[in-house]
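Hi F.,

I've been meaning to write this up properly since the lab meeting, where we talked about keeping a consistent format for the predictions we share between groups. The idea is simple: the sequence comes first, exactly as it goes in, then the structure tokens exactly as they come out, then a line or two of notes. No screenshots and no reformatting. I'm using this chain as the first example so we have something concrete to point to.
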Amino acid sequence: MLNILKAILRQTVRDKLLWGGAIYVLGAALIQIIGDSSFLRETGSAAFCDLASFLTLLLPIAGGWVTARACGTDLRDKTANYEILFGKNRAAVYLGRFFAALIIMFAVTALIPVVYVGFLTIKNGWGGSFAFSNALLHLSMVFPFVFRMVCFYTALSFFAGNDIIPMAISIIGTMALILASFLLSESGIALTWHTAVTDLMTLLDFSNTTGGFFDGEDITVVKAVLSGKTAIRMLCTSFGIGLCWLLGGYAFFRKHDIS
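Output, unedited:
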């Protein structure tokens, strides 16, 4: 499995389609930053809270694209089938692709906040909008949701046998779930653990704010406390549902005929 993992990592990291998407997102972000100079005056804590809404949209879509390209591309061109025909174990073929996608997504999830928030923290200090320990807790809790997403899109890629369907669903499905969550909340219905997207929105909901005074300036203070009960529930649903998807995808692939 290690050789497959290394090969898929190299292949996915060099994927021109993924790099094109990354450059587009980075370019759009830079244009927004250049157009609104207030971004560069933010403290690290304020930047972390502002980044949260962006991550709830970016991570599900990026997770779908990265996983689809790591898993589905080789299913469409039959590379995975050839690996099996030449003696590779199905579990190695399946898990090698899953772990490649997971490693890349974990790296992306860590890199974005560290680079953006780290830069503004060095430039303007951390500030008082959000406690640093609380920010670390919320960031660490994002990774189980990424795990759940990668499990889902791994299974979906093997169900579909290509990368096109999971890539499309990652965009359309994410937008639809975010919209549905807002519409249902108006009726008093809360979507949380039901999907990784809506539960991630719950985790990174920093809309509860109050005024404060820090370092001689009026600031916005975010009131977002993650209770132990909620954290345990999020961990159980993320890993539990994620593993169900992962095992379901493997059960399908193990019995699926190759050609």
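Notes:
The longest strand covers residues 209-214.
Strands lie at 209-214, 217-222.

If this format works for you, I'll send the rest the same way.

G.
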